[in-house]
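Q: How would the structure tokens look for this protein?
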Amino acid sequence: MKRPTQKDVAHRAGVSRSTVSYVLNDQTELKIPISDETRQRVLKAIAELGYEPDARAQSLRLGHTNIVGVIIPAIQNPFFWQILSGISDGLEEAGYSLYLSHHPLDLQQEASTIRQLRRQPVDGFILLAAAKYLMPRLADYLRKAGRPVVEITASKAEFDHVFHSYNSGTYALMEHLLALGHRRIGFVYGVNREVQGFDRLLVYREVLEKAGLSENNRFEAHCGEELEDAYQAAYDLLNRPDRPTALLVINDMLAIAAMRAATDLGLTIPGDLSVASFDDIPFSSYTLPRLTTVSGKAKESGIDAVRLLLKRFAEPDLPQQVTTTGLELVVRESTGPSPKQVE
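A: Here is the predicted structure in token form.
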């Protein structure tokens, strides 16, 4: 069925096409003498025909779309859902829509990502930094796009950004485990590329070195970012005769897999093994036992990113804006004193 046009509306209402346009755009400032009776007739014809304005054409006329492009490289981790929820809520409150671009962190997908973004008119972008680091041509496209960009990032950035680093949270978590008497602390490091978790890995190594435990590096298990990858890495680590008494895991989702591996090996948590991680996804409050974690305030980060973008829309010439996400160590039941019998 053919989509109705302004010409169809004009014919149904018995008015000119320009009159329909004036009614649609509410251009009272132009002093066009349109009676209330004519306006109601046009509105009735619009309802009867089911006419909807062409959003793309409107955006070209107005110079903005009220759409923000959000680029997220991975959505299997619920942590990203929380960030996206904050972004969505912030944009909706401000009267903006969201265009989501999701692609795996794969260089072969860069061209496809950039093509999609070029086809979709948006007023600005919110970018999770992992996409920028692992897809350099995408970063170059954003620099040249001429539209505001806000990053959620764990490192310095050229655009406005929400600084979201687990650096301080890793210090707090390591201090917590050391205070519980743990000296063999392993790390299940499940990432697509190592750079994604340097805010945690480098601090882990630094704290061990300062505590005279640098030999713990042998308990690092580098693996992929899927649940099975983390399960197998943790299983192998915990099946060693000199197994660690505590495990740090790169994120809560993979920590759940590591906890399953421990259970399958007959280990109790936290009696035989303490497990701690990062993100504080909703599931972490419902594992058995509940998971000790560093809360990344994901939803707040998304809301902060929207706030920075809206401010840039309003004041294009502002100096670079930076805001820092607060972190919180949430101690729950999955961490406890080191078991003496394996020390």
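The chain has three domains: 6-53, 64-164+298-326, 167-296+329-342.

The chain has 13 helices and twelve strands.

Upvote if useful.
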